Amino acid sequence: MITLEGWIAQPDGMRRGRVDLGDDGTIMAVRADGPAVAVPGDDAARILPGFVDAHVHGGGGGDTMDGPAGVRALARHHLRHGTTTLLPTTITNPWTEVMRALRGVAEVRAHPDDAADPLPDLPGAHLEGPFINPGRLGAQPPNAVPAAPERVAEVLATEVVRVVTLAPEVDGAIHAARTFAAAGVRISVGHTRANAGQVADLLRAVRGVGGTAGFTHLYNAMGGLEGRAPDVVGACFADPGAWAEVILDGHHVHPTSFLAARAAKGPRLFLVTDAIRACGMPEGTTELGGQQVRVLEGAARLQDGTLAGSVLTLDAAVRNATAAGVPLAEAAAMAATGPAGYLGLADRGVLRQGARADVVEMDPDLYVTRVFTAGRPVPAAGHGLGGAAGRAGG
């Protein structure tokens, strides 16, 4: 048994106590005493549930599109920063390359790791593209295709996709949304020129088969919100049941816009990294989906200046959330409880008896000191390279 002591993230705040990790990979006991506080006032460790990243392309030099070796490389990098569950995320490439990447994720899931070299849990993949609007690619390469039934069937046959980003207005989107949702895949609206009505139609289609819906990197690659033009952001804010992911790296979303989304979405707003292979690597030239990307002062951009994913880690996103004024326990929930709920993973994202023993220990500056995945300790990033990636303000 391993015992962690310090300030423990609980639904009502941070409480002083201890967490016992069992040899079976679950939490044996949580003892949280005394009043809940928003900001602990001493140097004791901060103990948070392991982070869940539902949207991550790469890191540590690896990328989902590289195949199994790339998936393992990015997973190990983000695990050191406290991410104990993640969805390797594809990018819009030629169809054969997208399918190859999905099969690579499936291979890693089938042969995840060994006791000496653990990986985060990979419940599936996030298919970001190619069922998106070619007029709202963002940093996605120009390989968008309609959501044809035969392509949807081919994706489902891999049995690996957990989330699919979908533009409501593309050909076949409504049928694809129903088919994916009926199979348990989360539908995430993104890379779209849809209006609020088209978004609402898609959400109704998803819920009509009992599905779950969200929004991909809220504010980015979608229409905003104006008084007479609610567009995608307005549709998101108006729908209390929809989830939304946000990239809080100091570049993609202004802190005030983040706080507005928090006020509108509450616990259904969660943090993602959208990280690329350059995350944790020295700044300079890298690539995303075969496109040249330049990383400078914490921002990854295409040659035309378009933001191209991020070099963010979820521990940095938690630091950025607290810097914006979010209490630590709530920031931890945005990085763990929320995304676990969105993905339907009821066994993690919280510190309670019987939950999966995915735990992050942080110092008072909110840098990771220890990580446990299913109770197994792994090396932590600390203040090393990549530890400050995406700190608010660039």
Q: Can you give a write-up of this model?
A:
This protein is of the alpha/beta class and 394 residues long. 26% of the residues lie in helices and 26% in strands. The protein has 10 helices and 20 strands. It has helices at residues 68-80, 95-110, 149-157, 173-182, 196-208, 231-238, 255-265, 314-323, 328-335, 337-342; strands at residues 2-10, 13-21, 27-37, 46-49, 51-56, 58-59, 62-63, 83-88, 125-128, 161-166, 186-189, 213-215, 244-247, 269-272, 284-288, 291-296, 299-302, 359-362, 368-373, 376-378. A 7-stranded mixed beta sheet has the order 3-2-1-4-18-19-20. A 4-stranded parallel beta sheet has the order 9-10-11-12, covered by helices on one side. β19 (368-373) and β20 form a beta hairpin. α4 packs parallel to α5 and α8 (314-323) packs antiparallel against α9.
In which range does the helix fraction lie? 25-40%
State the end-to-end distance. 40 Å
- What spatial order of strands do you see in the largest sheet? 3-2-1-4-18-19-20
The largest β sheet comes out as:
7 strands, mixed
β-strand amount: 25-35%
What is the string of SSEs from the N terminus onward?
EEEEEEEHEHEHEHEHEHEHEEEEHHHEEE
Low-pLDDT runs of 5+ residues are: 385-394
Q: Compute the number of helices.
A: 10
Radius of gyration: 20 Å
Structural class: alpha/beta
Can you give the mean pLDDT?
95
Number of beta strands: 20
Bulk shape:
globular
Fold topology:
Blueprint: E1 2-10, E2 13-21, E3 27-37, E4 46-49, E5 51-56, E6 58-59, E7 62-63, H1 68-80, E8 83-88, H2 95-110, E9 125-128, H3 149-157, E10 161-166, H4 173-182, E11 186-189, H5 196-208, E12 213-215, H6 231-238, E13 244-247, H7 255-265, E14 269-272, E15 284-288, E16 291-296, E17 299-302, H8 314-323, H9 328-335, H10 337-342, E18 359-362, E19 368-373, E20 376-378
Parallel strand pairs: 1-4, 5-8, 9-10, 10-11, 11-12, 13-14
Antiparallel strand pairs: 1-2, 2-3, 4-18, 6-7, 15-16, 16-17, 18-19, 19-20
